[in-house]
Fold this protein.
Amino acid sequence: MDEETRTSDAAWALGEVRARQQQVIDQATIPAWYWWAVGVLMVVLAVGVDIRTSAAIGTAVPVFVVGLLAATGAAVRGQFRQARLRNGLLDGRGVAAILGFVALIVGGTLGIAFALRAGGVHYPATLACAAGGIVMGLGGPVLMRTLRRIMLGNRAGSPR
Amino acid sequence: MTDARFDELIHPPTRLAIVSLLAASQWADFKFIRDSIGLSDSALSKQLTTLEQAEYVEIHKGFVGKRPRTSARLTPAGRTAFEQHVAALQDMVARSGMRIAPQ
């Protein structure tokens, strides 16, 4: 095999290495619908909190818990059946992105809810969770794209 | 920094694809590897056995409920060999001045 052929073969092999690792990363991505589902469930729970009757709470809490478990199970089922991502793919930037997203949703939702309540607005938890749910639905896929980019950068064969 | 070492056992296209999938995984299901690469059960078994004999891969056979499930993972030696092989490929490409387009 001459030098040029060897180099072309090496370039092809590197492309293959990266593409195959990308397959594993892509199968582990949480689908966009999951974030909207969690957002809707947050609103359901908040309606129960705002109405404050036993019937409302007794309905909202089970719907939230069962819905969250079902949605999470469906979203991550692929990972448990197909392949589990290697821990090293997600570095400190990924962890920071996840924590930042959680802080944004929790902090933002609580902040809006308390502000609305202080202002005497009806259904403050519902309105705040609706806002938080929209951020969740729109921001979840952005978080996934960020994590995917980080993992693709950390896979073997990425530019050094 | 990883030492570069071209690995003849890993380099053939099918084994390179298998090891690359496993390199991004803690473990991968047999069916996932088979379907991702487009191999028959017997062809994949043969390649996994070759990698297992080289102590690059561990194969785990178990049950989920009543269903048998086979999974595979890279051993530490397999991961090191893969990383050294990738470093060797990168060196070959870098020496030529070629660039791999980002995916």
Q: What stands out?
A: The CA atoms of residues 29 and 108 of chain A lie 25 Å apart. The interface with chain B takes residues 3-4, 6-7, 10-11, 13-25, 27, 81-87, 89, 152, 155-157, 159-160 of chain A (CB under 8 Å). The beta strands of chain A are 83-85.
